[in-house]
Amino acid sequence: MGIWKNHVEEEKQQNNIEDFTGKVVEVHSGDCLTIEKDGDFKLVKIYLASIKAPKLTNDTSEAYGWESKESLRKLAIGKKVKVVVEYSKVVPIKSGEIQMNFGSVFLTSKNDKNVAAAQLERGLAKSNLHKDQMSRYLEDLLTAEKKAIDAKLCLHSKREPPKIIFNDLISNTK
């Protein structure tokens, strides 16, 4: 029948990225960044493993979405990091499929501080647990999230989130 004939190929495709060091060049959201690898200078988009930050799009933003992105940007942009690739998965999209790489990112200048744990500790992300795909640093992540829950920070508070108002100085006013 050939039902499982592509299974090995998909497994190889999912694990084609290894641990690396590099510099953070872009922050897309509170749980996703682009890192320029040392040596070959390739850009790699990494999603922080086992956490979920509020969504931030051009049209709408979930509560604390902007704060989460800004927190990660201030913490990591331009910094040297060590990336431990945890897992990858292929996700279908309208025009085909993309490979999403999930990993743990550590700031090498701050005693290997895990940026996912920092986001959780600030209350700007929540843990996102899956049965088969979890970070190997899950205990640290859950401890950091517990601190934010106990302190009732941001996402864990009952307060109304701050309203973000932007003045767009570039758009055409006509």
Tell me about this structure.
24% of the residues lie in helices and 31% in strands. It is of the alpha+beta class and 174 residues long. The chain has 4 helices and 8 strands. The protein has one domain (7-156): OB fold (Dihydrolipoamide Acetyltransferase, E2P) (Beta Barrel), CATH 2.40.50. Helix 3 (115-121) packs parallel to helix 4.
- Helix and strand succession? HEEEEHEEEHEH
Q: What is the total tally of β strands?
A: 8
Structural class: alpha+beta
Percent helix? 10-25%
- Which residues form runs of ≥5 with pLDDT under 50? 7-15
What's the quaternary structure here?
Answer: single chain
User: For the residues shown, what is the average pLDDT?
Assistant: 87
- Looking across the biggest beta sheet, what order are the strands in? 1-2-3-6-5
The coarse silhouette is globular
Question: Can you name the CATH architecture?
Answer: Beta Barrel
Structural key phrases:
single chain, 174 residues, alpha+beta, OB fold (Dihydrolipoamide Acetyltransferase, E2P), 5-stranded mixed β-barrel, 8 strands, 31% strand
Give the topology, please:
Layout: H1 7-14, E1 20-29, E2 32-37, E3 43-48, E4 51-52, H2 65-76, E5 80-93, E6 96-107, E7 113-114, H3 115-121, E8 126-127, H4 138-151
Parallel strand pairs: 3-6
Antiparallel strand pairs: 1-2, 1-5, 2-3, 4-8, 5-6, 6-7
Brief digest:
This protein is an alpha+beta fold and 174 residues long.
